[in-house]
Amino acid sequence: MRFFNNAKSYLIILVASFFLMSCGTSKFAQSVLDSREKDKKAFVETADGKIIEANEARIKNPLFGKSTIELDGEVKIPTKEVVAYQNNTGYYRRVQGQFAPRFKKGLINMYSITENYTEWDNSRGGQGMRNRVRIVYYMQKGDQSPIQKFTPDITRDYVKDYAPAMEFINVYDKTQKKVRMWSWINTGAVLGSVILIAATPTRNSDVSGVHYAGAGLFLGGLINGFVNKARRGKNVKNLELAIDEYNSQVKRKNKR
Prior knowledge:
Blueprint: H1 2-34, E1 42-46, E2 51-54, E3 57-60, E4 68-71, E5 75-78, E6 82-86, E7 91-95, E8 98-104, E9 108-121, E10 128-141, E11 148-149, H2 152-159, H3 163-199, H4 209-255
Antiparallel strand pairs: 1-2, 1-6, 3-4, 4-5, 6-7, 7-8, 8-9, 9-10, 10-11
Helix pairs in contact: 2-3, 2-4, 3-4
């Protein structure tokens, strides 16, 4: 009976995890869909600035031969000649050799790509370099401007001419100062605990109060380090809010 109860619990957790992942994916897909050009069904923009409209656009990547974007099942355009295209799922622009979906559209556009990288990993009972995949965001101020990697400095530069958006940047900067301060405190706590424990000798395997204090300092530093890392991750949301606020000024002007 205990086995079945545990199996049931694991199943619930697994289903919940898939549900949360699907919700996040669905939300992003909806953002991409909402960022399409509303006055066109589908089109291809070529490197020479030409716009070819259609009812449907599909990217074709054959095992052998050239990749193309097929318009209405008839016209085929080599992808190397394409700057951007749109179909019924979203608008995609070439960024770092990929067709990146646009998930924010406005005065500031945002795109996402996937990037492969390697890192050292000693988990799962083995050590070595592991291949990883991460999502990297890019941004663009104006449809014809250069696309730049999403960073705090670029975001600040994009929204600096609109005070309501800069309020979120100010919150971001203040939070980052706290993050850096706690980072130094956590590092000092961990190093201090190691020095404290190492410098205090033990006799007859007795653990002194100093050792307990050192262990507590070490554990506190580690726990607070994880909390601080989460704080840093949440702070990025303020950059996104700054972009949303900047883009919303167009909607406010249109309502007047």
